[in-house]
Amino acid sequence: MQDGLWAQVERLRDWLDEEAPPAEAGDVRLLRILKISEELGEVAEAYHGATGANPRKGASHTFDDVNKELADVIVTAMVALATTADKPGQLLAEHLDGLVRRVMPEG
User: Fold this and answer.
1) What's the DSSP call for residue 20?
2) In the chain, at which end, N or C, are there fewer CB atoms within 10 A of the end residue's CB?
């Protein structure tokens, strides 16, 4: 599944490379990284809407909306990683393994 997942991410990255206005490589990386914060803002908005935290808007979202926005953050971060790293799938897998080893007890 991981290979298929990263193949889809690479397809998205390639599509963005082809369709986005021309930019310097550093600008492309920066814009893809900044896009993560935009998507995170949408998670916050959906959460506020799901909990009714904004009295002016009331219950404008559901937790299904929150979950979809969280998925957008993950995909956007994966596209950014695929833009900045040579082997993003390997890098993420190794990083996750290191995190798990660091925080989980032996065994």
Assistant:
1) S
2) C
C-alpha to C-alpha distances, 40 to 19, 32, 43, 70, 96, nearest whole angstrom: 23, 13, 5, 8, 21
Per-residue pLDDT of 39-84, as tens digits, reads: 999 999 999 999 999 888 889 999 999 999 999 999 999 999 999 9
Token pair, residue 84, equals: 């900045």
Alpha-carbon distance of 51 to 59, in angstroms, equals 6
Q: Which of 96, 100, 44 is nearest to 70 (CA)?
A: 44
Residue type, 105: P
| CA 45 and chain centroid, separation | 16
Write the DSSP symbol of residue 106.
P
Query: Could you give the CA distance from residue 39 to residue 54 in angstroms, rounded to a whole number?
Result: 19
The sign of the CA dihedral 71, 66, 104, 77 is: positive
Q: Does the pLDDT at position 101 exceed 90?
A: yes
